[in-house]
Design a protein that fits this description.
Elements: H1 4-17, H2 27-39, E1 44-46, E2 52-57, E3 60-70, E4 75-81, E5 87-92, H3 97-100, E6 104-108, E7 114-121, E8 142-146, H4 153-158, E9 166-169, E10 174-175, E11 180-183, H5 186-204, E12 211-218, E13 235-241, E14 244-246, E15 257-263, E16 266-267, H6 270-282, E17 287-291, H7 298-304, E18 310-319, E19 325-328, H8 329-343
Parallel strand pairs: 3-12, 3-13, 13-18, 14-18, 15-17
Antiparallel strand pairs: 1-2, 2-12, 4-5, 4-9, 6-7, 6-9, 7-8, 10-11, 11-19, 15-16, 15-18
Helix pairs in contact: 1-5, 1-8, 5-8, 6-8
Length: 345
């Protein structure tokens, strides 16, 4: 595995990050994912649910491996058009008002308009609001201030905005000279990019894995049921490729790949975790094993959906999850090397 595939993975991650896709509004991103895998020569189909199922090939149809990542992100929905013309939001997934305050947003109307605004604390001027610093931030105490001349509910509705419209937050994607990657929604578009990098590695080398290998890019992970369906016949293991947690009490850094032994949903397959550790050691991968305190994954949804398989979770280390997230090119490369080692390709 050469480092050029980490570069390719980031290139594709950047492109996907530019396509807004909060849970429930993912069709454009999913179509891009489908077309990009297909351009590498792999059959890719849309599921009825809106995800993308990709066949990476393989020799053994009876011991299949399913790799899962998700293209849906956090976001919000218009919950109320207020009397002053501003918008009260309802979160999509775990979007937190503390992290979204003062962020630029786009409101997508069902009529096709895209309107600019900013999420602000209600009465946001420090020189006016003496309680600014003490105010609790929530989606009831913040509002979208539209960059339009609106003063009433009627003014805003005249623009085409209605309750139920999707609100997307600016990702602010950038790469530093030292290789750090910063953006909203690295969770989990970074992993989609990594799986595209892995697919390109297979395609360039005309490599056929020993095990039949599939990719499922889901679109409802952030609300808990992304991976609950669409498991191909013959799959015996599923590994979620999602963000690796970085924070107090954990050993992973942004430059490593994390192997999760347990999260809030319980332990991952002892066998799969052991094989991942062995593959990391054999392949010279910089990795960490951690227990995540507040986390759930697509493969847990797969098990809850009734699939009879073993499950695991890996991912490039990501700091400040569900906020303005940060990873590193080394984290991408180590994740790719672990995938190659696990599949022995």
């Amino acid at each position: 595995m050469e480092r050029i595939y980490a570069e390719y993975a980031w290139e594709k991650t950047e492109a996907l990050l530019s396509i807004d896709s909060p849970t429930g509004y993912t069709a454009k991103a999913a179509a891009w994912v489908k077309d990009t895998f297909a351009s590498l020569g792999f059959p890719a189909v849309m599921t009825a649910k809106g995800g993308v199922l990709v066949d990476l090939g393989g020799e053994d149809d009876h011991d299949g491996l399913l790799l899962e990542a998700h293209a849906d992100t956090l976001g919000a929905m218009v919950a109320e058009i207020k009397g002053n013309g501003r918008l009260r939001l309802s979160a999509l997934g775990g979007m937190n008002a503390n992290n979204g305050e003062a962020e630029n947003v786009w409101v997508y109307t069902r009529g096709g308009k895209v309107l600019d605004g900013t999420l602000q604390l209600c009465n946001a001027s420090v020189h006016v609001n003496g309680g600014y610093s003490d105010a609790k931030r929530s989606f009831d105490s913040t509002e979208v201030v539209l960059d339009e001349d609106v003063k009433s509910r009627e003014d805003t509705r005249a623009l085409g905005i209605e309750v139920g419209d999707i609100v997307c937050f600016e990702p602010r994607t950038r790469r530093t000279s030292s290789g750090y990657l910063k953006s909203r929604f690295l969770d989990d578009k970074l992993s989609v990019g990594i799986l595209l990098g892995f697919a390109k590695y297979l395609a360039d080398g005309t490599i056929v894995p020993r095990r039949r290998t599939w990719v499922h890019v889901t679109v409802y992970e952030e609300v808990g049921h992304g991976g609950s369906a669409s498991v191909p016949e013959g799959v015996t293991e599923a590994i979620s490729v999602d963000m690796g947690c970085v924070g107090d009490g954990l050993s992973c850094t942004e430059r490593q790949v994390s192997i999760c032994a347990k999260d809030s949903g319980g332990p991952y397959s002892y066998e799969v975790v052991g094989k991942l550790i062995q593959a990391a050691k054999k392949s010279g991968v910089d990795y960490a094993v951690d227990v995540y305190p507040h986390y759930g994954s697509d493969v847990e949804a797969t098990l809850r959906g009734g699939a009879d398989l073993r499950h695991g979770l890996i991912g490039a280390g990501v700091y400040a999850s569900h906020g303005y997230e940060r990873s590193h090119m080394d984290g991408i490369f180590n994740t790719l090397k672990l995938l190659c080692g696990y599949l022995e390709v």
